[in-house]
Amino acid sequence: MTVSFGIIIVLCVYVALAVLDQISLQLGPYSPLFGGAITGLVMGDLKTGLMVGATLQLMTLGVATFGGATVPDFLTGSVMGTAYAILANKGASYGIGLAVPIGLLLTQTDILARMANTFFQHRADRFAEEGNYRKVELQNIWGTIPWILSRILPVAIGLFFGQSVVSAINSFIPAWFMDGLKTAGLILPAMGIAILMRYLPIKKYFPFFIIGFVMMAYGGKNFSILGSALVGLAMAAIYVIFKNKPTSPVTTSGTDSSENDDSDDDEVEIDE
Amino acid sequence: MNKLTDKDIKKVYWRNLFGLQWGWNYERMQGLGYSWVIMPALKRLYKDDKEQMKTALKTQLGFFNTSQPMSHLIIGADMGIEEKTGMSDPEAIVGLKTGLMGPFAGVGDTIFLAIYRAIVFSIASYMALSGSALGLLLPIIAGAAILWVRYKFTWIGYQQGTKLATEFAGRMKILTEGASILGLTVVGALIPSVINYSLDLKYQMGKVTLNIDDMLNQILPSLVPLAIVMFSYWLLGKKKMNSTRLIFVLIALGMVLGNLKRIFGM
């Protein structure tokens, strides 16, 4: 019950292209539907592939990577589930049953890839200090490597050794490590936010930071980032309106008649 | 100051299509990709001015994350503003990027991920379930239409950004302050929405179960994410701390927090 080398290579190339599609164009190859269909086509059983892929696709329609969150890798799950189902000749539902735990397990490789790319971000920081923009550019291109490896390695290993490897891996990595990794993935965005706070004049404008936080912390489910941003925009506009008023009429004191509506307000607000 | 050519903007569009997320990482998300995408414009504007280029590189490597189709509007506007003002005011650029990325992400993810995907892929899947692979063409065709929309977005953003910068010429300081206010409001709002971590601890005392998360929520919702952010912010202000070291601190913290139940034997 093994897959030929040729097929493993073709599927590896496919998942590499698919993960690049997932993080860029999102045309379709990244979806479980395509994963199942392509695998089925390559292994000579398109119908099973379509069934596995379509079922997984419909199961995961609501699962989207909002804001770059990691979601189970159902694409790779779909590829491997379809392959195992065709190999074992046990039909689509067998493949679907395998695809889900595989997708869940591979959440970890996705997290690792996203962590690994921090390395290139820091290299880029170093080159930015030197003003070396060519080297900064290169780092983003290197970033594709962890992405591609995170999909190719599981597919290559999984198809080469068969499904026993999935349960073996599951029992090999200690649970505490998996939990720790998952939590680290959850709290690491704190760093990006903290860097942003260092960049913006937070000491001067801290009240707005507090307002933003409180809106989402308490409003959470009933409120949205869009809502907070609109409030932020309104506060910014208010600030600009009040700050802007005194400077404009100074030079145009003689043309009051042309902006009568505004000048009524001006008299009230000018206090300097 | 050099002018951007149509070719530069088209180059940025192509880069944006493919590479915004190649370097995606937990620390600055699309930050690395953003710098790569906008690089043709940076080259045109700052090639002969090393100091401006350094500032530009550092600014554009900062934290960024939004919906990919919507990012074209922000990057377009960024180009429009930088063409006029250069890197004279990096805070304005950061404020603009930060202020727009949140709301655009919300709108973009809803339209281009949730709604779009639900429609296109459910139709394709139903066709596949009945044994027809023809449905697979549907996402490809619809996806091509999205690419056209993204092209338009690049130009709309660029034109609006130029307009914004022209209107506020000489009043950039106020714009900066306004953008900072918007940016900081969104940064504050990001904490509860981006860091979805809770302690998940329950303390058993006889027959009474204390839910630690509930207790903390009564003090202040999202208290733990806020504490982690403030801790990171404070650490970054330390002399010997840099972002590389902070990453290890946070991973170590994650290892501890992820295993609280084991540590306390609950």
Describe the structure.
Chain B: This is PTS system, IID component. The complex is a heterodimer of chains A (272) and B (266). Chain A has two domains: 5-188, no CATH class; 200-269, no CATH class. Chain A has helices at 5-22, 32-42, 46-59, 74-88, 92-105, 107-130, 133-142, 144-161, 164-172, 175-187, 189-199, 202-219, 225-244, 247-251, 260-269. Chain A has 272 residues and is mainly alpha-helical. Chain A starts with a helix and ends with a helix. In chain A, 77% of the residues lie in helices and 0% in strands. Chain A contains 15 helices and no strands. In chain A, helix 3 (46-59) packs antiparallel against helix 4. By secondary structure, chain B is mainly alpha-helical. Chain B has two domains: 6-192, no CATH class; 199-263, no CATH class. Helix content of chain B is 73%, strand content 3%. Chain B has eleven helices and two strands. Chain B has a two-stranded antiparallel ribbon. The longest helix of chain B is centred in the middle third of the chain and has 40 residues, at 90-129. The N and C termini of chain B lie far apart (64 Å). The model of chain B has no long low-confidence stretch (mean pLDDT 86). At the A-B interface, helix 2, helix 3, helix 6, helix 7 and helix 10 of A face helix 1, helix 2, helix 3, helix 5 and helix 6 of B.
Q: How is this structure best summarized?
A:
Chain A has 272 residues and is mostly helical. Chain A is built from 15 helices and no strands.
Give the ordered list of helices and strands of chain B: HHHHHHHEEHHHH
Helical content of chain A stands at: over 70%
The ordered string of helix (H) and strand (E) elements of chain A is HHHHHHHHHHHHHHH
Number of individual domains of chain A: 2
Q: From the alpha-carbon coordinates, what is the Rg of chain A to the nearest angstrom?
A: 27 Å
Number of helices of chain A: 15
Pfam family, one (chain B): EIID-AGA
Keywords (chain B): Membrane, Transmembrane, Transmembrane helix
Protein name (chain B): PTS system, IID component
InterPro entries (chain B): GatZ_KbaZ_carbometab (IPR050303), PTS_IID_man (IPR004704)
